[in-house]
Design brief:
single chain; 691 residues; Immunoglobulin-like; C8orf32 fold; Jelly Rolls; 3 domains; eight-stranded mixed beta sheet
Length: 691
């Protein structure tokens, strides 16, 4: 019999042996074997296990072998189990889109694991390479297409590929295919000797297991960050390489929500880079593009034409930037074999062609501003999602900056400001920026615009006549985002059609017509956007027997369709899982006075409202006197991006606004019994107002 002390030693020894046994099983990451794949498919389950998904990624694994020069080879395997007929149809043809100057992929094998456990090898002889569909940007992307034998529910596809090249965020939506093997021109990474990558671990389809391993030369330090959640990770030594591995298991599909934030900002994300800091990226972007900004005689002559009659630097800068914004059409063509994701084209060519994508418009602005004597540079930014602190490529947009004499920078975006009065769009609020400067600078953020900057200010002075007719004058003063949206809407309507289109968008009442209309020239940047209308609407107010009822005209949000005001439509959901993205702050500000018929008075008004939260704020107050009704209404969207926690308060404010729009104002002629007015004043089944 063991003593107590001996028993303790035995337990400790047995535990150590157990731990040693378990540790022996924890080998370095490796590709899954054929037997393991078969087992995983069999255990994967069916549609009921995945919330009705059409298919599930049983396995999504990749081994990335980084070269010291900055290129990488990725050996990948995806196993996709078909769960519905729709899933079978969606995978009947496999497609890989690629940029041949960026990376190449060899399709190594495609197998079909039948539900009866047989395996069919798909012949690659029918693999077709052809131009990929393109719109507005024609950079010569290609796609490979491979037909798959008829799939049944329960079958699974095993797809193995080998990719060599590098990834850039500009082309991140590509499907991962390529012309195959090593054919084509030499692949040259953007920054020689550096490698970087951004990998998402959740998407639109469920994943049972995702593994991502990076085999990095041990003398190449790499920094990384994991965002928006946790991942399992490990680091193994393997001769001259370090193996960094991240895994995720049982990952549900993202359930998309209206206007949700970018996936990069809400699903588990890995960001890696061998680059030390953003200063290096800044210097590189300057050096790789500095030769593109030479001005020729034609460019100098245009700058002189635009600015010779102007007095101030501010006026001259605005004239140049708006010319680029309005006259360089947005379309992209491949020129000279450059990697289109990060190389700007020569400004002389852009000026000659009068066309280019964001980088070319930005480069054109840099060149013209330098002709004016300003220290101007191109800059990188990401429109629509965050740029993390790890200095990996996380950019989809190029803009322009001027370094002021005090060392500060003025942000300019000729791509986003056509038909906007400002030089930087308030829809690009607090975006990550990296300026391309000779000395290199750290990442920064674009300006924040308060809601008042993006204000739709509307005033109305009208009259309700005894026969129910409404006559009113409505004036708009429009700033920032509201002004830009309005200018673009107006610019898209022929002048002769504008009165009819404005009537279509009035929303005050079906009978409403415009008697006179004065609207800004969309290309007049000397003032904020405006519009003024005289409106008549017969039968706007309903009633009889000494009573009238009507709704508040401005609370119908006339011309709202011109503003693409998605922030005024929160949806039916009471809660959200993900944040909601409106791009810019907003403010609505209404002030309306309605004169009543002589001898009439208001007997029912909406109660005052005050709501204030991080999600949104609202105030409403109405008063009567001197035979008129006056009210003031303000709605404020305080941030262009709201968190899921802020959403309920924001929705409450919008719902309150909509309730005010539906409120009825009850009036009576002096001498009419107030009780009768309250009892019968609101339209019933036989009465209705004009809207």
């Amino acid at each position: 019999m063991m003593t107590t002390k001996e028993h303790v030693r035995f337990v400790l020894f047995a535990g150590a042996m157990a731990c040693s046994s378990v540790a022996a099983l924890a080998d370095a990451p490796r590709p899954v074997s054929a037997d393991e794949i078969a087992t995983m498919i069999a255990a994967a389950g069916d549609q009921d296990d995945f919330d009705g998904a059409d298919f599930v990624y049983v396995l999504d694994e990749a081994d990335v072998y980084v070269q010291r020069g900055g290129l990488a080879t990725t050996e990948a395997c995806q196993v996709i189990k078909i769960l519905t007929d729709a899933g079978a149809r969606s995978k009947s043809v496999l497609r890989w889109e690629f940029d041949p100057d960026t990376y190449r992929t060899t399709i190594k094998s495609v197998r079909v694991h039948r539900k009866d456990e047989s395996v069919a090898v798909v012949s690659l002889d029918e693999l077709i390479t052809q131009p990929a569909p393109q719109h507005a940007i024609y950079w010569g992307n290609q796609q490979q297409i491979l037909g798959v034998p008829r799939l049944e529910v329960g079958d699974a596809l095993e797809i193995r590929t080998s990719k060599i090249g590098f990834n850039i965020a500009y082309l991140a939506d590509s499907g991962g295919g390529s012309a195959g093997g090593s054919a084509g021109p030499e692949l040259v990474p953007p920054m020689a000797g550096h490698w970087y990558e951004v990998t998402l671990f959740q998407g639109d389809h469920p994943i049972i297991k995702k593994r991502y391993s990076v085999h990095m030369p041990k003398d190449m330090p790499v920094q990384y960050g994991v965002y928006n959640g946790a991942l399992k990770s490990s680091l193994w030594f393997d001769g001259d390489y370090h193996i960094y591995t991240w895994t995720a298991e049982d990952v549900p599909a993202v359930k998309r929500e209206p206007r949700m934030v970018a996936l990069d900002d809400c699903v588990p994300k890995l960001v890696m880079a061998t680059l030390g800091d953003w200063h290096g990226k800044s210097r590189w972007f300057y050096e790789v593009n500095e030769s593109q900004f030479d001005a020729d005689d034609a460019i100098r002559a245009k700058v002189a034409e635009l600015t010779d009659d102007l007095k101030t630097d501010e006026e001259k800068i605005a004239a140049v930037v708006h010319w680029v914004a309005d006259n360089i059409r947005y379309y992209g063509t491949k020129q000279g074999g450059a990697c289109e994701g990060y190389t700007l084209h020569e400004s002389a060519k852009t000026f000659r062609d009068r066309g280019g994508v964001c980088k070319d418009k930005a480069g054109m602005a840099v060149t013209m501003l330098r002709v004016l004597g300003h220290e101007a540079y191109a800059a990188l930014t990401m429109a629509g999602s965050r740029v993390e602190r790890i200095p990996a490529d996380q950019f989809n947009h190029t803009v322009t900056v001027i370094r002021n004499k005090d060392g500060s920078f003025l942000d300019i975006d000729p791509t986003w400001v056509p038909l906007m009065r400002g030089l930087w769009s308030s829809f690009e609020d607090r975006q990550g920026l990296v300026y391309g400067t000779p000395e290199g600078v750290d990442q920064s953020l674009s300006p924040h615009y308060e809601p008042e900057y993006n204000m739709r200010s509307v005033r109305s002075k009208g009259e309700i006549h005894e026969d129910g007719t409404l006559t009113t004058n409505i004036g708009y003063d429009l700033h920032g985002a509201a002004g830009g949206r309005f200018r673009r809407a107006v610019n898209g309507i022929p002048v002769s059609d504008r009165p009819a289109r404005f009537e279509d968008e009035l929303s005050i009442a079906p009978t409403a017509r415009i008697e006179s209309l004065n609207v800004i020239d969309p290309y007049d940047y000397t003032r904020d956007a405006f519009a003024e209308m005289d409106i008549v609407a017969e039968s706007y107010a309903a009633g009889g027997d000494g009573m009238l009822v009507f709704q508040l005209p401005l609370m119908s949000h006339p011309l709202n369709g011109f503003f693409r005001a998605t922030f005024m439509k929160p949806g039916d959901s009471k809660e959200r899982k993900y944040g909601i993205h409106f791009w810019a702050t907003r403010q609505l500000r209404y002030e309306e006075t309605l004169k009543l018929p002589d001898g009439w008075e208001v007997v029912s008004l909406p109660e005052p409202k005050t709501l204030d939260s991080a999600g949104g704020a609202l105030t409403f107050g109405a008063e009567t006197g001197d035979g008129a009704l006056t009210y003031r209404f303000t709605f404020t969207l305080k941030s262009g991006t709201l968190s899921a926690d802020d959403y309920p308060d924001y929705k409450r404010a919008v719902d309150t606004m909509n309730e005010l729009s539906a409120e009825w104002i009850v009036c009576r002629r002096s001498g009419t019994d107030a009780a009768d007015a309250h009892a019968t004043g609101k339209p019933g089944s036989g009465e209705s107002s004009g809207r």
